[in-house]
Amino acid sequence: MTYNIEVKNTGDWLWECDVTVFDAENEIIKGKTRVACETEQEAYDYAEKTFLPDLRRNYPRQLSDLVFPWEVPVEEPEPEVIE
Question: What is the DSSP string of 12-72?
Fold first, then answer.
């Protein structure tokens, strides 16, 4: 599953975030939220790190396969053994 986030400024300090989640070919769910913050990046981060996980919690059947980049374990390389 993938997701797309579009952020638009709707006024002073107010941003509207449109979030869409896709499977391989189809749109699964759409959501919209408004965020009061200073920058577009802050609004994007809120949509990605707070709003999307809440959507997944509220729609577990539809979004159970949605995995965020920070949830994927990072494999550390094995240390080199010097003999």
Answer: TTEEEEEEEEE-SSSEEEEEEEEEE-S-HHHHHHHIIIIIHHHHHHH-HHHHTT---GGGS
